Amino acid sequence: MPFPLPRWIAHRGGGSLAPENTLAGIRVAARLGFKAVEFDVMLSGDGTPVLIHDETLERTTNGAGRVCDTPDSVLFSLDAGHGGRIPRFAEAAALCREHGLLANVEIKPAAGHELATAAVVSRLTADLWRGAVVQPLLSSFSLEALEVARDLAPEICRGVLFEAPPPDWRAEVHRLRAISLHCDANLLRDEVLAEARAHDIPVLCYTVNAPEQAEMLFARGVSALFTDRLDLFLQIHCPPRPAKAGFSFRITGFESSASEAFRP
After folding, report:
1. Cα–Cα distance between 74 and 51 in angstroms, integer?
2. Residue 77: which CATH number?
3. Model-level pTM greater than 0.85?
4. Which residue is catalytic, options 11, 82, 99, 199?
5. What is the per-residue pLDDT across 157-174, written as a single tens digit (0 to 9) for each?
């Protein structure tokens, strides 16, 4: 059965209102009325899926080095902002289910770890959301990772991430049995939108922090936007878009129905 795609998705958990990719951020988004959050999942040195965007620890924690080389004993002792620690993926999933949030789980593999990351994250996503009313959406810039997700967790919906959609974007969406196209709001061409509309494929754009740009993108036919400025787009004033042909995910079935700091 289809369910509505919220117009607004909180970027990296709580956008600019909380440390990124943290449980605190997800709680902020839920408290402000957002119905969807996006976060990144990478493997630690011990193979544990955790929420973090960068391959290295310096920007978002008080640690140093590569995430994929750091053991859990060190990783979970770090400060990820305001005294919080890096969350396990399972913790974020439980919090999203508790608040009824749609989770856009971006598979974010470290270089050379695409297949292993995709296998762990896709299988665990299927397990963590088994029986949930609101199902998640997997996405990735790595087409390899999405291939693995398609094969290992076909019941979980997928979105294909590009900065600028290439000429063959729709062929990739079809090959990966994805339901949505995600791209940089500043690199979205009208012809891509027209093609997506003609084939009922929702287009989701990142990262939109200005009301004027948001209004323009919705007027052009974009389905949903990722934002850091949760304070500007409080969901009590911006309810989810009603379900309609081409702008809803399908929980069952796999046919389409529809600068670093600012990448998803």
Report:
1. 15
2. 3.20.20.190
3. yes
4. 11
5. 999 999 999 999 999 999
